[in-house]
Automatic annotation (TrEMBL), chain A:
Belongs to the binding-protein-dependent transport system permease family. HisMQ subfamily. It comes from the Bacteria. It comes from Ahrensia kielensis. It is found in: Cell inner membrane; Cell membrane. This is Amino acid ABC transporter permease. The lineage of its organism: Bacteria, Pseudomonadati, Pseudomonadota, Alphaproteobacteria, Hyphomicrobiales. Keywords: Amino-acid transport, Cell membrane, Membrane, Transmembrane, Transmembrane helix, Transport.
TrEMBL record, chain B:
Keywords: Amino-acid transport, ATP-binding, Cell membrane, Membrane, Nucleotide-binding, Transport. Its main location: membrane. It is a peripheral membrane protein. Gene3D superfamilies: P-loop containing nucleotide triphosphate hydrolases. One of its GO terms (molecular function) is ATP binding. InterPro entries: AAA+_ATPase, ABC_ATPase_HisP-typ, ABC_transporter-like_ATP-bd, ABC_transporter-like_CS, MetN_ABC_transporter-like, P-loop_NTPase. The keyword rRNA processing does not apply. It comes from Ahrensia kielensis. The lineage of its organism: Bacteria, Pseudomonadati, Pseudomonadota, Alphaproteobacteria, Hyphomicrobiales. This is Amino acid ABC transporter ATP-binding protein.
């Protein structure tokens, strides 16, 4: 019943390749977070602006991002846009798909965080002669980031794990893509995927720990 | 000079200011007293344009506060306001709280802004606390920091909206002392307060607000010693 022989050596010899893939994974995750955060800040402003069209645009994006599978979002970025003659490479499509997803979730995080900041903060800024945007940028936004920091860390971990969906659009240079390729060549499925899983786990833990240290430095108040 | 002419203001069906006429001269200290809901705090937020008004007009040094053509942010640099809730910016140190607006609004350099901030912080007795975060300050200290923050913009007018109401009784004194010092320096001030003996001490004039109307205004001796208005008399007999 159980006659599978483990060949860890073969898999471990490929560790450098896997770690190279891990760097690509981390790169996509970080970029997708940065892009997602910038978009989410704009969406937060759109929602506060009171402009119906900007608000509707932000809300539609957020609704789709949060209520459809991330896999479909990445598929759409690659094959869906392809139907309209917009051809994104697997890398770009994966990045776009995850950034799209991140923007949706982060917008909701920011919206929740804003509720924790009293209106009087912005009012105090305005009464010192600041414009609405200045008081948002200098007073409200930094506090919003603090409240939203933990959910942002969660989203970052989620982004790292989502990159593995890239294999479905032909992504071959990230950790999942390389694992898949090595597996196809060797059929050491369990070993390769087990090692890759451990690497994902370690990256996620390092990111979480790093975020905690960063928070301790940034939010001393 | 602040000129308030026939100002009316409603929140939905509730009319909180029912035609206020009032002029505050340069260097004058005016205190506004009255029950809650009398419109006194609303009047302050109308003066610096945080609240729109329905009719009438408010002029600060001849500038129409609520006119579309007015650069309200520029005008607000002239009018400092301190609120009942201290509204310290929690993510900034005391010094950063005070330098933020001079640097970002007045585009001052860091060194110049810090010099002014330190002077103001020393003035309110917080020089030692410049590098701590507001969460480490007592309520009274936070409120004095808010005063220093407003003063760092070198305003010509200061508005104080019940600045001691949220403080523990033993902390009220230190804030009142700061206000007294400002009054002695010749700052033009409008104070909304429930501290009657303080109002009697520092004011040039005292206005009594009742249900959105300025029921009586006069020197403190008159308002506290010989009120002409029945409502004023009743209010004062209740608070004392």
């Amino acid at each position: 019943m159980f006659n599978y022989t483990f060949h860890w050596n073969q898999a471990l010899r490929s560790l450098p390749q896997l770690l190279e893939g891990a760097l690509v994974t981390l790169e996509i995750a970080v970029l997708s977070m940065v892009i997602g955060m910038v978009i989410a800040v704009f969406f937060t402003l759109f929602r506060l602006s009171g402009n119906r069209y900007l608000n509707a645009f932000a809300v539609s994006w957020i609704e789709i991002a949060r209520n459809t599978p991330a896999l479909f979002q990445i598929y759409m970025a690659h094959f869906g846009l392809g139907s309209f003659g917009i051809h994104l490479s697997p890398y770009a499509a994966l990045l776009a798909g995850i950034a799209f997803n991140n923007a949706g979730y982060l917008s909701e995080n920011f919206r929740g965080a804003l509720k924790a900041i009293p209106d009087t903060q912005s009012r105090a800024g305005r009464s010192l002669g600041m414009t609405w945007l200045q008081s948002f940028r200098l007073i409200v936004m930094p506090q919003m980031f603090r409240v939203a920091f933990l959910p942002m860390t969660n989203q970052m971990v989620w982004a790292i794990l989502m990159t593995s969906l890239g294999v479905t659009v032909g992504m071959s240079t990230d950790l999942a893509g390389i694992t898949q390729a090595l597996n196809a060549r060797s059929f050491r499925t369990f070993e390769f995927f087990a090692i890759a899983a451990v690497i994902y786990y370690i990256i996620a833990k390092i990111v979480t720990l790093g975020a905690r240290l960063l928070a301790a430095r940034m939010f001393r108040y | 000079m602040i000129e308030i002419e026939n100002v009316r203001k409603s929140f939905g069906p509730l009319e909180v200011l029912k035609g206020i006429d009032l002029t505050v001269e340069k260097g004058e200290v005016l205190t506004v007293i009255g029950g809650s809901g009398s419109g006194k705090s609303t009047l302050l937020t109308c003066i610096n344009g945080l609240e729109p008004i329905d009719t009438g007009r408010i002029l600060v040094d001849g500038t129409h506060v609520h006119a579309k053509s007015t650069d309200i942010n520029k005008l607000r640099c002239k009018i400092g306001i301190v609120f009942q809730q201290f509204n310290a910016f929690p993510h900034l140190t005391v010094l950063e709280n005070v330098t933020l607006a001079p640097r970002k609004v007045k585009k001052m350099g860091r060194a110049e802004a810090e010099e002014i901030a330190i002077k103001q912080l020393n003035h309110v007795g917080l020089g030692e606390k410049r590098d701590v975060y507001p969460s480490r300050l007592s309520g009274g200290q936070q409120q004095r920091m808010a005063i220093a923050r407003a003063l760092a913009m070198s305003p010509d007018y200061m508005l104080f909206d019940e600045v001691t109401s949220a403080l523990d009784p033993q902390l009220v004194g230190e804030v009142l002392d700061t206000l007294k010092m400002l009054a002695d320096d010749g700052m033009t001030m409008i104070l909304v307060t429930h501290e009657m003996s303080f109002a009697r001490d520092v004011s040039d004039r005292v206005a009594f607000f009742h249900k959105g109307v300025m029921a009586e205004i006069g020197p403190p001796e008159q308002i506290f010693g010989d009120p002409q208005n029945e409502e004023t008399r009743q209010f004062l007999s209740n608070v004392r």
